[in-house]
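Take a record.
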Amino acid sequence: MQAEINIPNWATHVVSDNTDMDRSPHPVDSSRVKSFRIRLPDDVYFEYAFIDGEGRMRADPGNDLRAANPWYPEVSAIVGPEYRSSEYADLPEEIASGRLDRHRLESVRLGGVRRMTVYTPHGHEDAGMPLVIVHDGTAFLRLAGLPRVLEALLAQGKARPGRLAFVEPADRSAEYGFNEEYRAFTLEELLPFLEARYPMRGEPLLMGASLGGLVSATMALLHPERFSGLATFSGAFLGTPGDRDFYGSDESWVLGQLKGRKSLPLRWYSEVGTIEWLTDVNREVHRELAGKAADHEYRERHAGHNWTNWRNGLGNALEFLLRP
C-alpha cells in the first residue's frame, strides 16, 4: 500500500516508531514540500506524528486514526487493508476473573519502595505454578491485558496455569540497561519475596518489551540456572555495559554472549517488527538462538516499535512459555 501524508503548516519535524518516535526526528517544511508518500506492506500497523515549533508531539490532523500509545498522548496510526489484530489483542475485561494482589517491597538494593501486582488465574489461587516476571508491568497489565490473554489460553487448553508478577521500574533506562543493582534486586529481593508468598513450580520465566526485553535477556544469559525461559518483544539488543546507546550502537552485548556459547539451556520466544531500528539485531539474535537454545520460536510482524504490535504477539508468547 502507499500512504500520502500532508504536512501541517505548524510542523517542524515528522517522527515515527521506525526510530522510536522522538529519537530521530526528520525536518519538514510545508512551505517547500506540502506532502510525502510512504510505501508500506498491505498488512502493516505503523505509528507516526509531527513535532510543532514548541517541541510538542502532535497527531496528524489529516488522519483520524489515533494510536493507543502509553508514552505519547498524540500519535497517529496507519493500518493496511490486510491488517488483522490477534484474537487475543482485545479481549473483554471480565475474562480476567482471577485474583489480583498488590504488594510493596522495600528494596535495600535500589533504595526505595517498589510496587508490584501479582495475578493468579481463576480457580488456581492455591496451586503451585510457574512464575512469570513481567517487566514494564503497568503497561503489560493495563494496556496489553496480559491476564485476559492467559485466561483465554487456559480456557482453550493452549497453556498451563502461570502466575504473573507485574513489576514496574522507577527509571527504566537506568535500571533495564545493564544495571547490576537491578539484577541483584530481582535475584536477592524480588524472587525471595514472591517465593515466600506463593507456591511455585519450576524455575521462573521472564517477559519484556524493548528495554524490558534487554533486561530479561541479560538476566537469563547471566543466570541461566535461575530461569527456565523468556519472551522478548522488539528486544533492545543494541549496546553494551560500556556503550549504553540502545539506538545507534554498533555493538551488541546480547549477540556477543550468544556467539560465545555452544549451547544455551533456556527456552526463548522472540519477535520483532519489520519497520523498526531493532529488526536487524533481533534477526541476528534469532539466528544464534536457532541452533543453541533449548527451545526457540521467532516471529516477525509488519509493524513498528509499538504496543499494538506487541499485544498481537502475547498469545503466541504465553502459549510458548506455558506450553501444556
Summary: The longest strand covers residues 264-273. The first helix runs from residue 137 to 143. The two ends are 40 Å apart (CA to CA).
